[in-house]
Design brief:
It contains five helices and seven strands, in the order ααββααβαββββ. The chain has helices spanning 2-31, 34-44, 99-104, 107-126, 147-154, and strands spanning 50-58, 77-84, 133-137, 157-161, 167-173, 177-181, 192-200. By secondary structure, the protein is of the alpha+beta class. Strands 1-7-2-5 form a four-stranded antiparallel beta sheet, with helices on one face. The longest helix has 30 residues, at 2-31. It starts with a helix and ends in an 8-residue tail after the last strand.
Amino acid sequence: GEGGEAAAEEDAEDAMETDMHQLEEIRRNVMASDPFRRWLSEITKCGPSRHRSMVRRFRPGLDYTVAHLGSKTEEPKLDATLCFVRDKVGNSGGVENTAEDAAAASAEASEADAEATAVLREKWDSGEVGAFDCYIEAEDEEAEAAEVYKTDDDGTELLSVQASSNTLSLVLRDSGVMRFTKYVSAQAPGSRWDIAAEFEGTSVWDIL
């Protein structure tokens, strides 16, 4: 009935607020912290001195970012993106998968869950539902926002990073490179959540 639908919508809103709060805590206490910057310096042999970061949600059938000249990198940057998607049965798409869910499942249910999980992960890995980060080269000033849909045809695609849950990707982005997040299909298993951080500073780019 209407009461049940309203309760379900309220629960969904509460879950979304919880996810956003958890990711904002990670952004502030981890990815924006000096220890994380020092860790990046150690594993990449770079020395980023400035950064900006944000929590983002891309909803199925609704959200994406667009490649345009305004997003072109004028100076090299290090992208650090911590991604979360629903790629496991029982995972709401949030930050945690509870141990209680796994413990409560029977052997038969666990096998079915494993098969369903494989299907979910294949959808994200194949790129057929979008939600992946794409890096393209801006070759001239006539590049248009439509490149978000044509990167496979024009030969300027440099790298695609598929959406994968609880995964940190690090990409050194040279000058003249644009980045966008592919439109999330309505057939996607759920939203893509991420913490997207950009690090820059002259000392970072000695290795390029």
